[in-house]
Amino acid sequence: MPPSGLQDPFIGEEGAQIQYRSMQWWSKHITVMIAQSVSLGVLSLPSSMATLGFVPGCILIVAIGALTTYTGYVLGQFKVRHPQIHNMSDAAEILFGAWGREIITIAQIIFFVFLMGAHILTFSIMMNTLTNHAACTILFCLAGTVLTFVLTLSRRLQEVSYLGIISSLSIVIAVMITVVAIGIEAPDPRAYAIGHPTLLSGFSAALNIIISFAGHLAFFSFQSELAEPKDFTKALVALQVTDTSLYLVAAVVIYRYAGAGVKSPALLSTSPVVAKVAFGVAVGTIVIAGVIIGHVGAKTIYVRLFRGTRRMNERTLVSYGTWVIIVLVLWTIAWVIANAIPVFNDLLNLLAAAFGSWFSFGLEGLFWLHMNRELRSAKQIALAGLNVFLVLLCCFICGMGLWATGKNISLSAKSAHGAFSCADNR
């Protein structure tokens, strides 16, 4: 029996009012994964490249891209082995029992809400850029919260996936506008092959790269709504090739022409007019990627409440009303977070250290070791070494990352505007 008698939450839904498992990997599923993963992270990569230099920056982007491709593959295999898994807490129960399930449930909800807060924060930066700070930043955060709340009201990922196409095109076009504009406007600044960061700044830059590939927390949920869950690997490879390529191009070109003064988000590194154009185009991904994250976070709670009941697939006041309340509560908390931590890079680094390390590296290593408890070949022994390394790497990233982020937040607090401030946060 699966742990706690869990079953696949979408099993036996044929003929139901709402059917979740309806996505094909080659169409909407890829766009949702790209929209969720390729969003805010890419906007911080040029500043990371400026800190590390071309060579270490490129090596880290490629290396982390390769490692997260492998860990994503492990997640897909673990889901196929255990079809009842819908999210990380289901998988954690297989490894650690009931207590592990509750800890991971809390952790993943916190991660989702903080990511949602990062999107609200970016929305306020965008609005301040477009309007030259025509209103209080708190109001811009509120406007972003209301918009994303409304767009998260659909319970099926397939409906949200239509927005994913807009989001994917939005971030690619915005980055390309920035790349071309910086190349034309470039003051020919200095760019270095190897930077000389301090331990604090270097590790913070590495965390920015890690959070750019930290979409794994949503992978189980995405795979659960595939018509054929075994096709997940194909979508994963398409995602990783796309995001690694875009990250390299954006980070290298923008840093080359913007130099050490490149800003984060990177769209602010162009002239005021071009920055407004780029942000206007990027509004799609700023809003929609947040909507997808909010949808997956709400679905985690919704499935926990109604798994195995008819309410999962009903169009009733209780089932849909519960969904609306969950979405409203999550976005309200995200609005509070966006106003409480008003520095873009610090918020991303905090997420990478505390959660991205475990959800992208550590737990995957443990999943593989659980599936391969008997090592029967040299290949399995080598892979066991790799997965032990992933767990150790996760511990290192988490510990050092929390230290670096704590120091940075302390330093930023002295120069940045305070929490819940109307001040311009560009």
TrEMBL record:
Localization of this protein: Membrane
One cellular component (GO) term of this entry: membrane
GO molecular function: L-amino acid transmembrane transporter activity
Entry membrane topology: Multi-pass membrane protein
Span of domain Amino acid transporter transmembrane: 28-404
Record keywords, A-Z: Membrane, Transmembrane, Transmembrane helix
Residue spans crossing the bilayer: 54-75, 103-126, 132-153, 160-184, 204-223, 235-257, 277-296, 317-338, 350-369, 381-404
Pfam families in the cross-refs: Aa_trans (PF01490)
InterPro entries, per database record: AA_transpt_TM
Superkingdom of source: Eukaryota
Major localization class: membrane
Similarity comment: family membership: Belongs to the amino acid/polyamine transporter 2 family.
Protein name: Amino acid transporter transmembrane domain-containing protein
